[in-house]
Structure formats: C-alpha cells, structure tokens
UniProtKB/TrEMBL annotation:
Residues 1-33 form the signal peptide. Keywords: Signal. It comes from Allocatelliglobosispora scoriae. This is Ig-like domain-containing protein.
C-alpha cells in the first residue's frame, strides 16, 4: 500500500532498484485503441530512497527524476518527470505488484501533462519490467494513449541488504503517446 501526505501513490521501479511511479492516485480509465504515433521519448531515470531500502519492510520516500528526449516530434523535443511519493512496506524483497496512479510530465515547450495509468510489475529471468499503461488526463496531449516502460531493471540485492541499504537506483525509460 502506498500513500503520501497529498494522496496515495503506487510503486513502479523496483525493490531496491524498482520504484518509479507516483503522483496522485486516480483510477486510470482504459486506454483508447492505439492510433498513430504522436510522441516517442527515451531517456534515463534516477530514483533516491529515504531512508534507504533494506531487508525489512518500511515506509520509504521515493524521489523520481527522469529526463527523456523526444527527437522525432514537431511539438516537443524533451520531457521531464520530477516528483516524490511515499511507498509503505517497501523492502529488498517487496517492491509491490502495481496498481493505479498518475504522474506529472513537463514538456520542453513549457506545458505540462498528467499521465493517468495502471502499473504492471513483472519479473522475467531475474529482471524487472515495469509498464505504466493509460492516457494523458490533462494538459498537453489530453486524451491521448500513453505507455511508459522501464525495461530490464536488475535489483542490486547486495546493496539493498547491506547495513547502509540501497539509497538510489536508475535505469532506462521510454514514454510513447499515440493518437485516439
């Protein structure tokens, strides 16, 4: 279960390396049928954990910062995701399984969007794959389908189980918007 002082939050980037979701929780409506590609962005994400993630479950404040480039688009050239959320019960062995959430997007043209989604966390051959599937609920690109992918996250269990714990993690991320 996740929450924050403002609203509930959800996990996404992984136990010790897998956490990156957040934003005010709202029930994500099903995405519309995919239309033509509108925006394709790729970049990196860095998450910090306070206190660091350890073997025992605890309440963790997660700070997410992601920078993505959107090179083949005439409307925006980049996107920034910058937000904080609280994850209750996080540990080296409990990253959660997903659920509904939302997060803010700041575009290179100065406009903002809110991405409303459902998160799916899957462990495939020891690697976590996080998918956030939903739609843009407000701001630039309102109504468009959106998919955020955090592929191939390998948890650093050694750091997570050390006395210092796991204080930060990062990895690749993509964001794709398609038309109605």
């Amino acid at each position: 279960m996740l929450n924050s002082s403002r609203s509930r939050r959800i996990p996404a980037l992984l136990l010790g390396l897998l956490i990156a979701a957040g934003g005010a929780v709202a029930t994500a409506a099903p995405a519309h049928a995919a239309g033509p590609l509108l925006v394709q962005c790729a970049g990196t994400e860095q998450d910090t954990f306070t206190p660091p993630i350890r073997s025992t479950q605890q309440t963790i404040t997660v700070r997410v910062h992601a920078t993505l480039l959107c090179p083949l688009n005439g409307v925006v050239t980049s996107a920034t995701l910058d937000y904080t959320y609280t994850h209750i019960g996080l540990s080296c062995t409990n990253a959660g399984t997903g659920g509904p959430g939302s997060l803010p997007i700041r575009w290179s043209n100065g406009q903002n969007s809110t991405f409303q989604f459902n998160v799916d966390v899957t462990l495939v051959n020891g690697t976590y794959v996080v998918r956030k599937i939903g739609f843009i609920s407000s701001g630039l690109f309102t109504g468009y389908n959106a998919v955020r992918l955090l592929p191939g996250i390998n948890p650093n269990v050694g750091a997570c189980t050390s006395p210092a714990g796991l204080g930060a993690s990062g990895g690749a991320t993509t964001l794709t918007l398609t038309g109605l």
